[in-house]
Specification:
single chain; seven-stranded mixed sheet; three-stranded mixed sheet; 10 strands; glycoprotein; Hexosyltransferase; transmembrane helix
Amino acid sequence: MRRRATDFRRPVRRRVPDALWWALCCAVILLFVYILSKGNQIESRPVLSKRTYKHDRIMEGLNITDEMLSYNSVTRQINDQISLAKSFVVIAKESNNLQFAWELSAQIRNSQILLSNAATRRAPLTTRESESAIHDMALLLYQAQQLHYDSATMIMKFKAKIQTLEEQMNSVNEKSSKYGQIAAEEVPKSLYCLGVWLTTEWFKNVNLQKKLKDKRQVEIKLKDNNLYHFCVFSDNILATSVVVNSTAMNSKNPNMVVFHLVTDEINYAAMKAWFAMNDFRGVTVEVQKFEDFSWLNASYVPVLKQLQDSEIQSYYFSGSDDGRTPIKFRNPKYLSMLNHLRFYIPEVFPALKKVVFLDDDVVVQKDLSDLFSIDLNGNVNGAVETCMETFHRYHKYLNYSHPLIHAHFDPDACGWAFGMNVFDLVEWRKKNVTGIYHYWQEKNVDRTLWKLGTLPPGLLTFYGLTEPLDPSWHVLGFGYTNVDPQLIERGAVLHFNGNSKPWLKIGIEKYKPLWEKYVEYSHPLLQQCNFH
């Protein structure tokens, strides 16, 4: 048989090995990919199991709260024992059984450590590990019951303790009220010193008296209704000086400001001397004493008539009330004519048509001339209302169990404040407001309509005759509470109502600078009387 040529056979033999080679390569690659995928699955399995295990442990720890709430839980039983043991510790100490109280406290600590360890390892307590602590605590609780530390005994002792504490608290509150009232009513030595020096200066210095008499033009200003008239009724020289000085310092036209000051016989010479020797940017100042008002007598003024009654005198001045009425309501200052003179302003200033009344415990920090152009809409009194809180409504000040009060006044009517008031004296005279005041004063001779003070009769007298003013005109509370800084910034008149007056040691320190910046401490008399 004939053979094929060599160069013809060689290509045919090479085709078979090439196909096998490519097949083997593909198989190897597929095997490698398969092995890699298997390896990844094997490596990932432990990680997933670890994560799952940790998650289960966290969930188990979070279930400790459920364990404590469960009725058959060991953790809950130990917590209940601890709560009961704490109560017994208090009772044991009250019974002076300090050894037993110490034993209970020690066992409480042991139980708390047990609970803490369980919470740290995030696993519930087992009966075996808590059996000893539960048993020891149970013995102590049983012992407490044997010592009559049972619930009934505890309740009785707690009631007795509460009653004792209430009695002590009432006693402390009463003493605090008395001492606070005494501190508020005291006349500081420096003020007393100033009054004495000024009185002496007035009587020995003839030039000072002439200086006051020579001001003929003052008489014209006192009756000029085109000027801004302010009135202050006070026996406190320095406080009145601050009112006048702060008004003058913040006034756009101080030469148009007229102050009408009324004081008593004791402070009359000192008050005249002070305002004669000091200038307040051209402000006109008139000083009078109420003893010179011939119309102010017992036949016309109910308060003066009541002062002649022996029962009233005993109530205010002898302290024969046996403590039934708080001391602040029995303060004789409430019968002072300087307090009640605000209800006689038309009689005090018969030539005037409009007046701004200021208390002596205020500071003026804005120009007040716009007050005189406010339309009161036929009302007599322009005042800032104080009923943002429920305790400043009428029912807080008046006795609504009395038929007269109940029949004539709405208990939820809005209260307002004395201290900065605009009075239309024309409307006052037309509506006979002073006569309304007399009517209610006479009805309250037995103090059944209201206790004391000038605000309750003021609320009755000006009921339906008061025009609300913008709150920024009169900001209160500087003598007893915290005041919003924004209100202080916007306020025209800042009122130190309350016991903590700025000239007293008990004054609120953070508010004193508002008042003190209008006191000239460099004045020789103030330095001599140790004002600082």
